[in-house]
Amino acid sequence: MSETPIPAQKSRLRAALESDLFYTFTRSPVAVVAAFVVLLMLLASVFAPLIAPTNPFDPASLNLMNGFTAPMAANDFTGDVFLLGTDDQGRDVFSTILYGMRISLFVGVSAVLFAMVLGITLGLLSGYLGGWVETIIMRTADVQLTFPSILVAMLIFGIAKGITPVEYRDQMAIWVLILAIGLSDWVQFARVVRGATLVEKNKEYVEAARLIGRGSGAIMLRHILPNVLSPVLVIATISLALAIIAEATLSFLGVGAPPTQPSLGTLIRIGQGFLFSGEWWILLFPATTLLALALSVNLLGDWLRDALNPRLR
Q: What keywords tag this UniProt record (predicted)?
């Protein structure tokens, strides 16, 4: 008798392309456009040194005579033309946006990853262990929720910057900013993971893991964690947009990215000072870029939330 041939296992790429999630993605024009915008901005920021006409933060490449050049207009003194114009220091606005996006995206992604790791860890511990561990973590979360996250971030940023030696403040400013935003955003991850853990820890597969001698750490990481990640991914996507806006807010207020590494928020703060003097492009283009980035990430988060909701399938 001839043996029945065993079908070849599908590749991960093919399985992903045939999944329900990808199908719903291709049927949502808003999600496709939002993903395209986010991907385009991500690639533009990563390859900014190759795309940008100049390095706007290299003093040797600046020419003050090019200051306040309007978009697509020849400078009166040098005759140079810039796509989006220049700022007060003669920096190409298009180049500053590309380099500023790098800082904004790096801070946003790093802060969300930090908040996600911290929140998942504390949520798993509080949901699985319970008792005094849960009481301490959840009461701390409740207290933090009584304050606006931006105020918590400003407080943490001020304390961290205050204990940093003066000579290292500019070098550590970005990392302090990531720490501040991450510590202000872990609560929602912890609360969602705790609630899901309370449900999962009483299921049969967890009881079976206990019976075969699995430790608490292994059960949380290898059994419970994979089953609570779906809502975490949705929160992470939406939190990314909030983290980018939080970074821009802090930088706009002058307590974020240093002048040597300006982000989109810093560029908006600089442009705001020239808005009423007629140099509108210095503010408009960075603000539009920030708006498009935050809106696209938010739309992706909304789509992912609906796609992973079993009630809407």
A: Cell membrane, Membrane, Transmembrane, Transmembrane helix, Transport
Instruction: State the Cα torsion 29-33-38-43 to the nearest 10°.
Output: 130
* DSSP assignment string, the chain: -PPPPPPPPPPHHHHHHTSHHHHHHHT-HHHHHHHHHHHHHHHHHHTHHHHSSS-TT-GGG--GGGTTPPTT-B-TTT--B-SS-B-TT--BHHHHHHHHHHHHHHHHHHHHHHHHHHHHHHHHHHHHH-HHHHHHHHHHHHHHHTS-HHHHHHHHHHHHHHHS-GGGHHHHHHHHHHHHHHHTS-HHHHHHHHHHHHHHTTSHHHHHHHHTT--HHHHIIIIIGGGSHHHHHHHHHHHHHHHHHHHHHHHHTTSSS-TTS--HHHHHHHHHTTGGGT-THHHHHHHHHHHHHHHHHHHHHHHHHHHT-GGG-
> How many CA atoms, within 13 angstroms, populate the side-chain half-sphere of residue 211?
6
| Dist CA 173 CA 260 (whole Å) | 10
Q: Domains (ranges, CATH) in the chain? A: 81-312 (1.10.3720.10)
Q: Indicate the range of 158-162, 182-186, 255-259 predicted with least confidence.
A: 255-259
CA diameter of the chain: 89
Measure the CA–CA gap between 128 and 192, rounded to whole angstroms: 13
pTM of the model: 0.88
CA distance 236 to 301: 8
